[in-house]
Amino acid sequence: MRNRLDDKAITAAQAALLIRPGDRVFVGTACATPQSLTHALEARDPAPADVALFHFLTTGALPEGAARSRYRHRTFFVGSDMRELARDGVAEYVPISLAQVPRLVANGRLAADVALIQVSPPDDFGYVSLGVSVDVTAAVVETARLVIAEINPNMPCTMGDSFLHVDRLDHVVMVDRPVLEYAHAPLDEVGERIARYIAGIIDDGSTLQVGLGRIPNEMLKYLVDRRDLGFHSDVVTDAIVELIERGLLTGRLKSHHRGKVVASYAVGTKRLYDLLHKNPMFSFHPIDHVCDPRVIAGHDRMVSVTQAFAVDLTGQVCSDQFEGEFYGGVGAQPDFLRGAARSVGGKPIICLRSTTDDGTASRIRALLKAGEGVTVARSDVHYVVTEFGIAHLFGKSIRERALALIEIAHPDFRAELLDEAKRLNYLPAEHKLVNMRAYAVEEERVVTTRDGRRLMIRPARASDIGAVQEIFYKMSQDDVYTRFFRRLPALSYGEAQRLANVDQDTECAFVAVEGGRENEKVAASSCYFLNQSTNMAEVAYMVNPGWQSTGLGSLLQAYMIEHAKKRAIRGFVAEILVGNSKMIALAKKACDNVSVHREGGTCEVSMLFD
Fold first, then answer.
1. CA pseudo-torsion sign 239, 240, 241, 246
2. Quick one: pLDDT at residue 323?
3. CA-CA distance, 606 to 610, in Å (whole number)?
4. What domains does the chain contain, in order, with CATH numbers?
């Protein structure tokens, strides 16, 4: 084997001389960028004419201090290496799902004349590993006229479909340097809040895909109380190392590749690379397999978490362009979002900060701006998460989407967004902007009714208005009369707002919902309205007839009393019709100090907590 390598060995400068005018040259990905080869090519003088380099994500492809490349580039990802080149028109951005690239390579539309890659040393059988860059590299080396590889003893030997026989390498350049490393900068408080929100909706046994964004990677550290997580992702980073070391990421419940961490490339530090080296727990595969929506959807409880730059009130997402400038790329985002959406119990999640970094503009727009292309169609968007909460959009109308997204926008921009939504006829003119708080996820509570059914009691949102109206229309006229003290034939949008669209300060409203966040059904609503002069709050309830006599009223009352006590409210008052014996009995169970004063056909009930 040593002799065969010696026969193929050349210097990087000699390798650069093999590039012909007009060649299309593929460059290996990310931390496997073959820097010796790319730097030698940039140093070649004179440069061969009309050479074009194409690649996914590169790291340090240009020599340090080089302002420009001497060649044109076609890139599937505008990272830090390519941002200036793309701005100057030297690099052309190709917006494409990475899963489609191998097909273009195979049919010749994106064929490489030369492939410049980096691999591990060969094993006893003559096989090198593509290491941290299987992705599209595996497809390119099958068809390239000339394959030139840096052989680096520091490149980890990754398991799976990552092996290539040395006979496929036309020339090798021996290098001995640390594999390139990348670590995310620490997140600020805003990013951490988003990460916590995301972590809160991930269940035990979920299989995770996490993109390159800082927030999705930060989210992983908040999964310390989950069990038997799996991993099937385009990229693997340092963020999973702790989950593996703590025994939380086992892959035991995965539907496919059980017990394996599946990825296509790795971006991280030596800590990760040491873990990857010859570790059978990891299985690296070509990008078209890992990102195939059918493969992704085959995993139950598949969760995809990716980051975006902007989203408009209809749910259109831009994640590869910001205010006219290209950043990042399509990558694997659409494939994983669609795959997770089709997974049994899957959750496709898009996250973003509510504002630009300087706080001067909202990233939730009424309409995407010129120069912000749609990366993900509104029809494919399920969860959107900011530091102000979680919006679930799938299957929702434009009105419902606009309401949900305004609620998770930054308070400084909610009034403007509301005005724009009304101007665009997304929302009715009578809709009011009331709540300026972040969604209080910590106030969510799972309860069990007497008949064993589980529900979640949570703070109401403006987007619950329609669901509250639905409860009203399922109630009998007698129930409506006992609740509203009048024969009310309809509950208008304006009236329903008071039961859901509240400030959650002096007016607090809650709903009890069954089902997951993807298919919530509101079973009941409750609210209390504080009289600040007496520090007493008037309470009211509305329960779907199908949930009456299950103890749900008692559960709602106990929840609201606990909520009010935390705010040092003295007690509740309620006006109840004399004939409504069930509500009077419920009020009497509220606490030890309950008084009932009858006046005509109504009872005024006072419930003092102290």
1. positive
2. 76
3. 12
4. 2-174 (3.40.1080.10), 189-423 (3.40.1080.20), 441-608 (3.40.630.30)
